[in-house]
């Protein structure tokens, strides 16, 4: 048999591939980039609490505008342009100014040195020696000074030949210059020592010999060091963490957060209207949605992995990761997406006379309300994965790799396996799965999958062991998204497809992901990351049990009602037991079949 290609669907497939390829290099790394800029997990959680709420407001608003004024295509393309530009501009957001590195100055028995410690230990030593070679840096130290230290400085360094020496004995700070040879760095675990030639000191422009006799008290002082070298400052500076109260006073925070808001609005518009356009083109072939959406998983997986490799390659020898390449990737690929999407030809075939009324009737259906609550529950778990999984991995990675780690490569592999081993096969098989087990059973399976996945996360010791766990992303995202989008399209009254997809997406992200981000951020700070995943895992199992019990109760009551209604009701019972009965769908005289319902099997 000769294979046929539906050319009408090619631009849709290209859009899913390119849009996900354009966002994959940036979206997963935003929480870790925020941490690199200095923001605490609580700040990240707060931002990702507000962002989904912005999306929740944007999706129904622009979905309504698209349905009401038939402006699907312009809004769709405009959202892509906004997303690409907003992400690209994040590259220029400045980080927090790092404080001067803190060191210890030691002087005793005629030997002087500085001690500086870093959580990356040997890696920092290797970076400094590789970068500076045999250079000698002229540095200025500002040290805490006790009276006995001034005695040593005046008597042994300055030889009492400075007029201000006596007056300075009451000064709590001692400033002096020193020459530090970067080639002679000794490592002691997480701390390093660099010897200072004792005859190359300077105080107030006067050359001194920094000699401390062995019979005098040990000269040991906490200091800040300024060698006017940005690379040294970057390597040695402690990672200061900005809390929420401090962040809101910083202009660079609002620039960063503002660009994230614009990007989320753009993505919200593209995702909701894009799915509506896709279902509009598919018509009654809802089961084929997963096969269109799997192109997005393919694009996400390929370019997420490529982005992780590029970031690690460009960050060799650096404490902080260099994300320049991924921002350029996002801008260019989103440009190609705009071009491909401009080839889409879609005209809404059903128009609703009262969109808000028709969609509002969905909240009168018990099964639809349960569906919306299920979306919220899935959003809670999804938030933890989207916004905090990589932060957790980087915490685990510190014990294994240090500052030259391949953590971004690992994160790229994680996303690659999520897509190729998880999402892609499940999107491909989603139509068959939904036909076999029904939408409701699929919803229960997704909840159970989240519980297993989170418990396995909480047991991790080596971050690389996460890779096989990510195969479960097929259930927790691939099957979930296909179920959510398909169910929403089926129950949507004619002419409200974009509004309904937007509403469901808004409930999932604006309520579920938003709440999950807030709770996750607070738990990450109040308990350990490991405990946070354990709590969410137990919660997922509890919600799974509740969901199954409610559905069994509704199914039992539905059968009782059918037995009391006679042969007409009995005919409805032949549908899938997990399918919502037609009597659970709000009646609307604008529906396709004239009797208030579309003749579809919701299983």
Automatic annotation (TrEMBL):
InterPro entries: MFS_assoc_dom (IPR024989), MFS_MFSD6 (IPR051717), MFS_trans_sf (IPR036259). Keywords: Membrane, Transmembrane, Transmembrane helix. Signal peptide: none annotated. It is found in: Membrane. It is a multi-pass membrane protein. The keyword Ribosomal protein does not apply. Residues 584-603 have a biased composition (Basic and acidic residues). Residues 11-534 form the Major facilitator superfamily associated domain. Residues 567-579 have a biased composition (Low complexity). Residues 564-603 are annotated as: Disordered. The keyword Isomerase does not apply. The chain crosses the membrane at residues 12-30, 42-62, 74-93, 253-282, 294-311, 323-341, 362-393, 413-433, 440-459, 471-491, 503-523, 535-554. One of its GO terms (cellular component) is membrane. Belongs to the major facilitator superfamily. MFSD6 family. This is Major facilitator superfamily domain-containing protein 6-A isoform X1. The lineage of its organism: Eukaryota, Metazoa, Ecdysozoa, Arthropoda, Hexapoda. The gene is LOC117139250.
